[in-house]
Amino acid sequence: MKKAFAFGFLAAMTAFAARADSYPQRPITMVVPFAAGGPTDVIARIVAEPMSKVLGQQVVIENVAGAGGTTGITRASQSAPDGYTIMMGHMGTHGAAPALFKGLKYDPAKSFDPIGLAAGTPIVIVAKKTMAATDLKGLVEALKSGGSSINQAHAGVGSVSHSTGVLFDSIIGAKPTLVVYRGTGPALNDLVAGQVDFMTDQIVNVAPQIAGNTIKAYAIATPERSPSLPNVPTTKEAGLPDYQVSAWNAVFAPKGLPEDVRKKLVDALDAAVKDPNATKRILELGGTVPKTEEAGPVALQKLVESEVARWTPVLRSAVEGSNP
Ligand code: MLT
After folding, report:
1. Residue ending a domain, choose from 218, 245, 272
2. Ligand 1 atom nearest to 69, measured from its CA
């Protein structure tokens, strides 16, 4: 009996080792939970390219939009933990969503194998070109007096643009009409066209349009100005020091990956965020690349846990209308 067990165990380990050694044998799907062309999609495509080179198989982007990113993340969280489905999550889907999204079908801190941080993405307050206000103080006055006649774009409850948007509104005491999009890529198109009035969005999405002078940037919500937007003041400089918020994008896999498969994905992302071309593109767009202490799965797990803890009380009170 013992011999049979030993052979069985050996066969299983050999098969396991063969599978992990040969992983990946086919293309890998990276689910992006928002429409193509938005910030999550942009970061995903930047890191997918060098990841494909390291893994020797194409990392193929699949945009699965809806419900503030939770549709795509839920679907990816329920896929087989075999390394062939990963996802690009962020501070919305894996930080703010539990506070804002009723009946979330995943737990950001428990339903995933964290792979690593891809990029930091500071938040910028932007408006249509024809917005009369010439500075943040003027914009705040216009938003407060405009009430529900003002339209604010976002990418769905719990998304970065929604959570940072409702926080902004609660701090300044504005109550605009919220207009939902399948991502801030499409939202930006409407902002450029003047079909929507303003939004708070990740710098990697809006930096090119700000540089192109097709939309107005009022402030960036980080302590320091962005080197890619040197003329955009910080919220502190612009008189709204309480509005300090920055987002991030990170790669996750469904919980339960074989260890060797997980390590290959971690190593591939680590190489991607150190890839000179990828780094250049992220920095050009105003994003930040992970510092050593921010990189990798352990740091990402800690970030998710701290972000859920941080955003839950802040956003719950913001949505209830009282200041955080
Ligand atoms: C968001 O959370 O606002 C998303 O990042 C928007 C997007 O990526 O399209």
Report:
1. 245
2. 2
Could you read off the pLDDT of 113-158 as tens digits, one per residue? Answer: 999 999 999 999 999 999 999 999 999 999 999 999 999 999 999 9
Q: Does any domain span residue 270? A: yes
> Do 215 and 209 touch, CB atoms closer than 8 A?
yes
Write down the residue that tokens 């679907």 correspond to.
75
- Report how far ligand 1's centroid is from the alpha carbon of 9 (Å): 46
Task: Tell me, in angstroms, the distance from the centre of ligand 1 to residue 70's CA.
Answer: 11
Nearest ligand 1 atom, CA 33: 8
Of 245, 260, 291, the domain-final residue: 245
Kindly calculate the radius of gyration of the chain based on its CA atoms and give it in whole angstroms.
21
- For residue 61, is it within any domain? yes
**The domain that contains 265 carries what CATH number?**
3.40.190.150
Could you identify the residue written with the tokens 């309480």?
242
Nearest atom of ligand 1 to the alpha carbon of 35 = 9
Give residue 33 CA to ligand 1 midpoint distance, Å. Answer: 8
pLDDT tens-place string over residues 40-93: 999 999 999 999 999 999 999 999 999 999 999 999 999 999 999 999 999 999
Neighbours of 62 (CB within 10 A): 15
Domain coverage including residue 196: 123-245
What is the spatial distance between Cα 263 and Cα 213, in angstroms, rounded to a whole number?
Answer: 43
Residue 218 located in a structural domain:
yes
Do 254 and 110 have their domain in common?
Answer: yes
Which of 205, 245, 248, 307 has the most ligand 1 atoms within 8 A of CB, as the residue to mutate? 205
Please give the helix or strand (H or E) that residue 179 lies within, else none: strand 177-180
Which atom of ligand 1 is found nearest the CA of 92?
2
